[in-house]
Amino acid sequence: MFKKILIANRGEIARRIIRTCKAMNIKTVAIYSEADENSFHVLEADQAFLVGGPRVSESYLNIENILKIAAKTKADAIHPGYGLLSENAVFAEKCEQSGITFIGPSPEVIARMGSKIEARKAMEEAGVPVVPGITHPLSHANEAMNIASSMGYPVMLKASAGGGGIGMQVVHDHESLQKAFASNQKRANDFFGDGALYMEKCIENPRHIEIQLLADKKGNTVYLWERECSIQRRHQKVVEEAPSPFLDEATVIKMGEAAVKAAKAINYTNAGTMEFLVDSNMNFYFLEMNTRLQVEHPVTEEITGLDLVEEQIKIAAGESLSFTQSSMKREGHAIEVRIYAEDPKTFFPSPGKITTLTLPEGKNVRHEIAVRENDTVTPFYDPMIGKLIVKGKDRQEAIQIMQQALSEYNIAGIKSNIPLLREVLSHQAFHSGDTTTSFISRYINQ
Ligand code: MV4
Description:
Rossmann fold, 15 helices, 24% strand, alpha+beta, 34% helix
């Protein structure tokens, strides 16, 4: 087993990884930017080193400095967390070249799934249903028009290097397609240095449901059921839960088995997630694969009793999974909400000093949070400051515990989205399980 792990991240996920390392008796090395000198994760790690300036490009994305710190501290492995370098194939490759284990899948599989066109191709070959569409880059707006004609509008124009909605647009007719092609190609080029676009049939008012996977290096792959993540705003998830209030057991098993088959086909290892769009008739379509630990992993931990960070570390160290698909059970219902430092009305980030922070307590209430009272939220990073996770014996009980916890959550000095979360959790449509990607725009006053 590893003796020392460097955590190439910040915030709540850095703390989360340190916690598991401590439980596994593994030493930890934190890195921090000039803006994070006094942050919580720095205090908790065994060692901590300044990695660069406040901007992520100078610090948490600074591959050269991170690898220098790893070498200096003799770290055996690097955990990248989520975001930042977690899906950067070049970084994973450079770790391996430096003799440091990257806690994640191989650089090849990261690169392959990073191309959305390649990922579609791989899934099609593995027999997983993908959204009807094409698996090659569009050469020209005219080609896009021909394909849209045969597919039927509305269509989704998407950037192959994309994800998170950048370079993506719904197109309803021929007239808009010409313009959309040019503007999304430019956006994809500006953002990713890759203007390749592809096209899919638009699935209207879908649900976003993902399957959690674990795969060791011995060929054992299991699914840990689904997470329902449909309640989002501008591609930022707000509420996640498991099980999905919409899916039936038979569909979950079909999705899980399809995801395992596909993961095996691409030689996937470590923790990963297959994202699906699910339509109102419970048809599911592969969307993208995330080759990292996700923000919402605690939801799966709560219903399975596993520690996914521990599983990742063991897999990276070459251990076999200690369970099989049929020995795994899930139990109860978990809900996670993301706490953002933002104005609940305008959704603008709200940096500043946290003057009061009182967290709700309770045996089925879990916090993953990066800030303390008197800490300052800086404008340099993602405004998500923490997560609140609850577990109940069923969905109704989980909702009730979450509502109680949100009513006791007291954060002052900065604005937060807690009023929005309370609105979602108390909404009749949420209680009835009408959780689609249109939830916030349809039901919440903005
Ligand atoms: C789609 C779609 C409908 N049809 N693709 C949004 C982010 C990107 N990863 C994929 N996304 C979508 N792709 C087809 N063919 C609808 C979305 C989408 C969405 C997906 C998941 C969660 C929230 C969403 C909000 C708007 C659009």
